[in-house]
């Protein structure tokens, strides 16, 4: 298969509003059946509500003046029945529309989460965790009112407005003309208000994301430790106060935007009945047609039934304008390109032997291009036989971690190929890669859950006996068994209730459960003291037995028995061979070993530092 070098491109520019509106409407397409039922309920409720003014006119013009008690009773019961039916229809339409709205929000949240799960690591190295959380929680949460009530509100109000106008025309077309004169002005005002609120909402959500990111970083276990040990707790509180103060200003502006204009509309609407009464009186004095009291009262009632949904429609328009800013932020995430994708017709290996081969591999972060000076790795040719062991050593920034990340396809190569059992890893299905390659990283991540749940993350159907066997192999079972709650002990946020060595052994036990044929050890013992390192190394030896093992070496004493050792410098292999052969060469590796042996056992050799940091783009 042909593979293009991965490139990172920014999200597309903001779409025009009609295109974005169409995209929003497409979100409701799977639920059009339920929405049609909502529309029928709304239409029925609107027709029932329009009937009440006509019943009222009959009461005022016929039943009461003529003393027809039976007719009066029937008409009054009709008005009560209309109110009951309206109420029942209202509850049902609210249930259906809320269900549809919540399903749409669920679809959005899931789509964003799925897209983020498939984003390359480079995205997460340059995006604050709080920003991601804010998009999922605050932005989608802010759209709740829109997606749960907008469809119902639009249908309900449009139906009510249409029915009311028809009924008003049936009563008196002249009074209807007077009533509709100001509607165009109201529409223009509401559109202007909506545009104002849309701009402010976009600023407000960005500020909420910034504040959420600050909270996530500073109130994590690591953030609290850093703030207190550096004496910066007060300054962090001041920084949060500044961010919160900016949010206060934006919230006030968002709530007050166009408030005076909308209030003007409310005043005019409240005055309209007086205008209608005055118009009818003037027309009567001028010799115009006589309008009965019942007709006049029924008309004013219909007029209120017209203006209430009209104002609601205008408010819905303003709310939709505001929500466009939120939808745009969500669509930005949904439109981000996914660099690492599964091919349309992937290769699936039923059994992975474990041969790993690098062929003329070049690699640069974030599509840095193919210029040699911009590449992290250059011209890597290397074969690790199935069941063999490879150790990678070299100074900081030489590309050790970068090389190991290409095997499980955490990144894609810029040039060349990485092959697993002779198949380009880009051609394999994700399940084969996940089953075939296991990674024990320098920084162990544990969920805030029980030890058993953390271990079963690798194999959800693992039995208790399998958990114990994996823990024994990882030299951690005795420690777990000594805990009051054993395997049900909560590990705490990011595993802070356990030492570094204990977390590493838990990670190794988790990988043993996964049982991958290829194992990548990213300086798994780099942060440990000598005694703990010895226990962890025993666990690693048990894990490595019979597997293809690629080890990023921190302490050279741990990799002397590797089948082959490579020394990386500047992204190139500068030395390669077994420990004895490289010592005979008396080159860079031999110099590193001599320096390593001169250092105390618990001190790191300076030229062989920890894993390569992922460079910020």
Automatic annotation (TrEMBL):
Domain ABC transporter: 356-595
Region (Disordered): 597-617
Classification via CDD domains: ABC_6TM_exporter_like
SMART domains documented for this protein: AAA (SM00382)
Species of provenance: Streptomyces palmae
Residues covered by the ABC transmembrane type-1 domain: 36-322
Alphabetic keyword roster: ATP-binding, Cell inner membrane, Cell membrane, Membrane, Nucleotide-binding, Transmembrane, Transmembrane helix, Transport
Family: Belongs to the ABC transporter superfamily. Siderophore-Fe(3+) uptake transporter (SIUT) (TC 3.A.1.21) family.
Taxonomic path: Bacteria, Bacillati, Actinomycetota, Actinomycetes, Kitasatosporales
Predominant subcellular localization, coarse grouping: membrane
Transmembrane segments: 35-60, 72-96, 163-187
Protein name: ABC transporter ATP-binding protein
PANTHER family with a match to the protein in the record: ATP-BINDING CASSETTE SUB-FAMILY B MEMBER 10, MITOCHONDRIAL, ATP-DEPENDENT PERMEASE MDL1, MITOCHONDRIAL
